[in-house]
Specification:
seven-stranded mixed β-sheet
Length: about 120
């Protein structure tokens, strides 16, 4: 059974940092794409960052230069380091993975497995 469990969310002031973690069980995550998405109240879920099976990464423009996606293969854990956080980064953050795909997509429909989410709140 595949499980993704996020942690590391919290409340910070603008300019602060957080590191999100996504612990994966049930499959070897490094063989496949993994992604972070976020959803703010009243808004659609949007992709934040992706890392494919060859460790190529992608970021939405709004977080480029501030967020870094990475993973620890030995721990089967995905990370999202978030620096210079802004109020507009406030959202529930989710990790996601597709079933059996090494390539990534910015569309949420590409992903079959989702974590329960971790809340990030940034105050001005």
């Amino acid at each position: 059974q595949v499980q993704l469990v996020e942690s590391g969310g919290g409340s910070v002031q603008a300019g602060g940092s957080l590191r999100l973690s996504c612990s994966v069980s049930g499959y070897t995550a490094s063989n496949y794409c993994q992604a972070w998405f976020r959803q703010a109240p009243g808004k659609e879920r949007e992709w934040v960052a992706t890392i494919d099976r060859t460790d190529n990464t992608g970021y939405r423009d709004a977080v480029k230069g501030r967020f870094t996606i990475s993973r620890d293969n030995a721990k089967n854990t995905l990370y999202l380091q978030m620096n210079s956080l802004q109020p507009e980064d406030t959202a529930m953050y989710y990790c996601a993975a597709p079933r059996g795909a090494g390539y990534c997509s910015v569309s949420s429909t590409h992903y079959n497995y989702w974590g329960q989410g971790t809340q990030v709140t940034v105050s001005s």
